[in-house]
Design brief:
The strands form three sheets. This protein has a seven-stranded mixed beta sheet with strand order 2-1-3-4-5-11-14, with helices on both faces. With 351 residues, it is α/β, with parallel strands linked by helices. 43% of the residues lie in helices and 18% in strands. The protein is built from 13 helices and 14 strands.
């Protein structure tokens, strides 16, 4: 069957080609009855828009490039899913690139997506410093939103969880359950989430024990490091392990189980992100839940405003409040969510 054209829809609806184009593209207001006739005719004929032709006419491809540091991290598939839904609702498709935590590969993917004429970019930067040049250059060409991580103040619009608020929830919970010999298992390097969570731990743990800020072991965001980190810190017999993400926490739980440690009686374990693995582990991991759906919606909203030309102001930095999900790894007897407070802890211009 030959492709159905605008002219076919116009003939079936009794309207001009120009009117049909306005209705289906939504570019100008059209009377309700006329719009109804056009849409019914398009549906009956099975009309599908030619996106390539529309891109040539409008100089817009309807695509958004998404660059991630590592799709194998279980946090990111959930984020991709929510972003895909949010952008699809705005009539936009996603082109995905995974740079495998390599800033050089990240820069190449960004350049490739720009060469494909994407309308905008969403980036979770691989490195706070080494990602900055490529991200800043891209942000000067198309609307760009940083998600989850940053790479310098004022580089681009950004939306992320308030890592400090999340760490405060963890420390308050551990204090309430009587923990004092707390140790932080984090990630080395200059990823902003690693630095923010470590900094928040060091600032907040001092109130529980003056020596707690110095009890820090750094590796990477992996299950393997979680297991190795326990061997590094266990001789000091901490009564709580505050892990910078859920992968580290799951690895820590595995090693503690091998060592015969009582969790949570002897030592509590907490994570960050609330990936599916956190609820499925034994025991379930107490963790900071990131509002993934809201993060995706805010990123799509920021892009939409820039793409529509409605927001030509300074870069915006939005920080979303997390919740604490208490599970058996720190408090026996069930699961509960402890909110951090307002849904958004900051939406001020960046810089």
């Amino acid at each position: 069957m030959a492709d159905v054209t605008l002219r076919d829809v116009a003939r079936a609806s009794g309207c001009s080609v120009a009117t049909v184009s306005r209705v289906l593209a939504g570019t100008r207001p059209v009377g309700a009855e006329t719009a109804r006739r056009v849409r019914e005719a398009a549906d009956a004929l099975g009309y599908r828009p030619n996106h390539a032709a529309r891109a040539l006419r409008s100089r817009s491809t309807g695509t958004v490039g998404l660059v991630l540091p590592q799709i194998t991290n279980p946090f990111y598939p959930a984020l991709v899913r929510e972003l895909t839904h949010a952008l699809h609702a705005d009539g936009r498709a996603v082109l995905l690139a995974d740079c495998d935590d390599d800033p050089a590969a990240e820069a190449e993917y960004i350049a490739d997506l720009l060469s494909r004429q994407v309308d905008a970019l969403l980036v979770v930067p691989a490195h706070e410093v080494r990602s900055r040049e490529a991200v800043a250059a891209a942000a000067a060409r198309v609307p760009l939103v940083l998600m989850d991580r940053g790479c310098g103040s004022g580089v681009a619009d950004s939306v992320a969880v308030d890592n400090g608020a999340g760490m405060s929830l963890v420390l308050e919970h551990l204090a309430a359950t009587g923990r004092r010999r707390i140790c932080f298992l984090g990630a080395a390097g200059t990823v902003s989430t690693a630095a923010e969570r470590r900094g928040a731990y060091e600032a907040g743990a001092r109130a529980l024990d003056p020596a707690a800020p110095g009890r820090v072991a750094l590796g990477d965001f992996s299950v393997e490091w979680g297991r190795a980190a326990v061997d590094e810190v266990w001789p000091a017999r901490p009564d709580a392990l505050v892990c910078a993400n859920d992968l580290i926490a799951v690895g820590a739980l595995q090693r503690l189980h091998q060592l015969g440690a009582d969790v949570p009686g002897e030592v509590a374990v907490t994570g960050f992100d609330d990936i599916p693995m956190a609820a499925l582990s034994a025991p379930g991991v107490t963790t900071v839940r990131q509002p993934v759906a809201e993060l995706a919606a805010e990123a799509a909203r920021l892009l939409g405003r820039r793409l529509s030309g409605d927001d030509g102001g300074p870069r915006r930095a939005i920080r979303l409040a997390p919740d604490l999900v208490v599970r058996e790894s720190s408090a026996p007897g069930g699961t509960a969510a402890v909110p951090a407070g307002d849904a958004r802890s900051g939406a001020s211009p960046a810089g």
